[in-house]
């Protein structure tokens, strides 16, 4: 009998003395009943399948297999399928675990022929004294121009938009043809790209920014992290030392 070979003699008493329903339930719920190092429940079900298959082959197809051959065939097939199943589950667990990758974030130069303007803005409170700053650099990282601006009371978002407008205006006047504008304010960039109603509190400055972008040049709006926007952040904070107004910087401040 196939089960006598599959189940170790130490487990025979428990294995062969259940009612049929309890026998099925116990074997698919308890991994300690068999002589299998992996999942006994899976192995048990597969042995059952191949016992039924070989029985049907004999009854309906006239295929007779000697008992010893049938036992070896059934246990080999069940073992093969369980190992494939456990291997697939193991690979799935490995694939489902996200790989943690550390990435250094910093300013990156644009491609040849492009300039990049980084802008930032902030307010001492929300609202409060608002400032903005920005820097334009070429593909070699050379300083093309910069600005500091202190323009009065406003929100942090208004300061971000003000910095973007001033950065675009300076880049246009400097003769940029292909420009990447980087800001660490995703909200400001989203507002510029979206259609906003004329009653929006920042509709005027948003309109000015969109008109600048629509000039005869190519402008890309790109979000960056604070770590990639350090110079613009410093210029925005440095604006507090200036009187009210916007000041163009031909050279990096010392």
TrEMBL record:
Residues 111-241 form the RNase H type-1 domain. One of its GO terms (molecular function) is RNA-DNA hybrid ribonuclease activity. It holds the Pfam family RVT_3. Signal peptide: none annotated. Gene3D superfamilies: Ribonuclease H-like superfamily/Ribonuclease H (3.30.420.10). CDD domains: RNase_H_like. Transmembrane segments: none annotated. This is RNase H type-1 domain-containing protein. It comes from Linum trigynum.
